[in-house]
Amino acid sequence: MGKADFLSPKAIANRIKSKGLQKLRWYCQMCQKQCRDENGFKCHCMSESHQRQLLLASEDPNKFMDYFSDEFKNDFIELLSRRFGTKRVHNNIIYNEYISHREHVHMNSTKWETLTDFTKWLGREGLCKVDETPKGWYVQYIDRDPETIRRQEEQARKKKQDLDDEERSAKFIEEQVRRGRGAKEVEETPVFTELKRESEEEKVAFNMGASACVAGPSKSSAALGASALKAAAAAAAATKRKDASSDTRGDKKKKSALEEIMEMEEKKRKKQSVRTDYWLQPNIVVKVVTKRLGEKYHKKKAVITEVREKYEAVVKMIDSGDKLKLDQNHVETVIPAPGKRVLILNGPHRDAEALLEGIDEKNFSATLTLESGHLKGTRVDVAYEDFSKLA
Q: What pTM did the predictor assign?
């Protein structure tokens, strides 16, 4: 009997039946064929193509099992990373979504007998973080992409720099406050002297305007009153001058500390103001980091021949000589070996040529000796992303 026409009722019914998932016991993993019923599976097992696949598998069964295991592992991890990212999720949820695809690799054709065995294997190999709970096994994908790791390290370095600047400012302010308090305590420390009288019969008189003297009974009360008024006025004037001078000194001290803080903030603001969000320069060596151009250019070095509109560059590949037009985000700087010449691309020493003296891996920076500009011969510390090798 011939095959039914494409639009015949029987052909349409067969296509409807073949949609979706079928029973696992009627699926042949070697031939990757799904049968609809027991009779169809029996006919397939007796077919010549199935027998030929069995002969191939019998020659090296481990090879086929490893192949299906790798396929299952790659598809499972790809679904986990794309669908859930680095979130912690139950392994059954991922598996149910994975087997919903009709052409998936069945677990009974792999080297793992159960999903639990596969989950434990992912944890032992370090591909995922796994933990067992009363509700079952949970997995969490570990992102080991070099671009992601580099971005995380860069964020950690910037955060550390911000914390260092804040701690430095706080220590400076604390030191200024401590100095101000110490000077104030020294000025306000009183000196006490003992009051002694040589003779019990003598009367002691205080003259606020001049030195203390002993007043005899011959002085008149009018002269005494006038001198007392003058002495009081003079003492008030002296006290006022002393308070004014002390206030002036205090204001001067406070002002000096404030000025130093303002100067430090101004320097920091000027240093930040000279930074720009573009850094491309001609005649420097860069590395292509984008994967959109394929493996042929990924992680390959090139020389910038032309810069267009600050953010685009025409580069020439060093190994192949091909010319490409790339965005600033598609390339990164190249750090040469110590002793090589570099060009500073950003910061207060922008456009200055320098000599690489050493590399500080902990602080993600390098020590450079300037070879141009008014600070020629000066050593400076520059971050990795702010300089690149000269062509």
A: 0.34
